[in-house]
Amino acid sequence: MLSIQKLLQHLARKELARRRVKRQEYVEQMEKLQREAYLALVRQEQEMARRRREKEEAAQRERLEELRRRRRLLDAAFDGDLAEIRAVLDEVEQRLTRDGVGHDEEGRSRRLQRRVALVECEDGHGNTPLSEAAAGGQTQAIQLLAELGASPNSKGAFGRTPLYRAAFAGHLEAVEALLKLGADPRVYADDGSTPAQVAPLNAVASVLQSWDLSLTEAMLRNMEAEWQRRAQEAQQQQAAAAKRLALRVQRLAREQQQCHKVLQQAYCELHRRISEHDRCQRKCPGKSELTLQAIKDTETHVDKLRQEAQKAEEMLAMARLELREQSQEDEEEAPGLKCQVTELHDVLMKDVGHRISADGRWPLVIDPSGQAATFLRYQDTNYIDTMNPEHLRPETIRLALLGALRYGKPLVFDFREVDLFPVVQRQLDAVQPGLAQALLSRRLLEQEGSSGHQLSNCKCCSLCVCSSPVEVSSASPNKAPTDCWTLAHRALWGSPEGKATDWEPARWA
């Protein structure tokens, strides 16, 4: 008998040592996985920062190249360097080709707009390349720029037109070329002078004074018609592009919803595998390796689907941004309050400044880093993980909401990276029809009377069990029993009875 007892003690000590070793291995494995996850997160953040930095650097290089290109065009126009002017235009054409702009009707329209924008660029004083060519007396450059769409009546520094600058410099041929291209000799500068008045040569002044203004009027009408045609064509192209972008956004939105649906199913499968592993460890410890491998395979699948969903989200966001830019709508500043995670306790939990209560809506926390979710998970809150099917059971949601109503504890729905708001609405309505809308509109929290005594008829609702009406006094609500969920509304706003301890906070931690 004694030997059997010693044998059992020996076996027990041996099993205890084995379990200690296994536990130590488990702890080391968890620490290793945590370190790997942390390093992976750091690498991901570094990669995102690198991409953002490269994008900013590319945009800065493009801005500098555009400035240099404009400077070259302005200098070439003043010097009459036609080869340099054409070289600058060829660079722009090549850049449009690299950006995927074709030579169809839409592509030709975009190329024309870009070319006109380039030849109408201005220096720091507001002078265009055509104005610089006029000041330099470069007749061929004037002709070329006008053919490319440059306006002969643009005003630059001191309100001076290209014709004004050509006349002021005494360039007779340039003045004649500009008049034939539709330059208006009647346009005044800021000081009230005309080109004819500032011309230093009598020949230049004579040409300006004897010019047939009916020709100018006809050319101005033709230019106005051409500008209107271009503007109408640009509007049509812009509307067509906006329509295509809108269709693309709709397609990407459908793809994103499908990715989220598949990801949700994968999360549900992962939670089932975890539950199976827990049951297997209790009943069949020898087969736990199989269930553990199933969990790892499912986690790999979830990670892949999460990356696909993130990519779909990024593509949709970029398409929406492109659509906003295409339609040229000014984006309103996003409402809300930006704060650091360290400020969440004051901003969200204590509502310092009463921003949340004054707004009248439930707070929505957006934090891509996930730190806010971690903070709320470890606060005294009723936390619901929408990715966990067990948390979305109607009974679980009912208990969480009842605890929030009775004891004034915040109720948190964590959507993670998936839009599961419609799913949460359905589950709330499964608890009690119309509960989602009642919760969103705050009807669930309305006071039953502004003064005097009111009767709160709970009628055994699906949130709690009340056997009889309760008399409530708005002047002294603390005197009423606390077994009626209606009185818990006052607990949500900080009444003393919100300090009960029969709730299980560990269940929601």
TrEMBL record:
Alphabetized UniProt keyword annotations: ANK repeat, Coiled coil, Repeat
InterPro entries registered for this protein in UniProt: Ankyrin_rpt, Ankyrin_rpt-contain_sf, P-loop_NTPase
Record bears the keyword Coiled coil: yes
Pfam family, one: Ank_2
Entry coiled-coil feature ranges: 4-77, 217-244, 295-329
UniProt key word Repeat: yes
UniProt ANK repeat ranges: 125-157, 158-190
Name the record gives this protein: IQ motif and ankyrin repeat domain-containing protein LOC642574 homolog isoform X2
Protein species of origin: Octodon degus
Gene (name only): Iqank1
